[in-house]
Amino acid sequence: DSGVTQTPKHLITATGQRVTLRCSPRSGDLSVYWYQQSLDQGLQFLIQYYNGEERAKGNILERFSAQQFPDLHSELNLSSLELGDSALYFCASSVEGVHTGELFFGEGSRLTVL
Amino acid sequence: QKEVEQDPGPLSVPEGAIVSLNCTYSNSAFQYFMWYRQYSRKGPELLMYTYSSGNKEDGRFTAQVDKSSKYISLFIRDSQPSDSATYLCAMSPFQGAQKLVFGQGTRLTINP
User: Fold this and answer.
1) How confident is the model at residue B77 (pLDDT cuts 50, 70, 90)?
2) B101 and A45: CB-CB below 8 Å?
3) Contact B14/A at CB under 8 A
């Protein structure tokens, strides 16, 4: 158990809809990362938050947005969903000041868009 | 062309074999190299972390980085069925976990 909690584990929705994925990082970790994993693209970095502020952006679509709240949990909002958004969405957290490249991943939220 | 290329496999070997997993990359700015292991229905977990060129050994696992060839490898000695997982290489120009670029992952099965 990595200590990172993601909900929901599975989500099935229709095209055009909006969903929110939630992540609670490990206790004490200030950084939260969101990744998308699909069969054709692999694991792709979407966005990073550190202590409530956006720190780095990757290949995140404009239809997607994220935020980190004062209690450090984070939400990833996906809107105007398309079939191609079906994927496994991972949240990860890391310890600042420890330079090992170690991300602690949750078990992911599997999104299916029909 | 992707920044990091990794053969997705699948790769199937008998128990006890030496396994070699590889990635190539195109971005010469990458300085930090990692291998993550992902079991089915789980998130990836860090297995090895190396900086720049050279070898690093941890038990049955050895990570190699050849920056001149832009090529990294992970060797698993005396492979066990419990090593069956997907192995993802990852790399970054930055120290720490910022903006890691992952390979596609190689699905490995160790047969008893």
Assistant:
1) very high
2) yes
3) no
Distances (CA, A) of A57 to A12, A104, B107: 26, 19, 28
Per-residue pLDDT at B51: 86
Residues of A in contact with B104 (CB under 8 A): 42
HSE, side-chain direction, 13 A CA sphere, residue B55: 6
Please name which of B49, B35, B25 lies closest in space to residue B85, comparing C-alpha atoms.
B35
- Sequential DSSP letters for A85-102: G-EEEEEEEE-TT--S--
B-chain residues within 8 Å CB-CB of A90? 43-44
Q: For residue A101, give both structure tokens.
A: 């490249």
Q: How confident is the model at residue B66 (pLDDT cuts 50, 70, 90)?
A: very high
Instruction: Report CB contact under 8 Å: A101, B97.
Output: yes
pLDDT digits (tens, 9 = 90+) for A77-93: 999 999 999 999 999 99
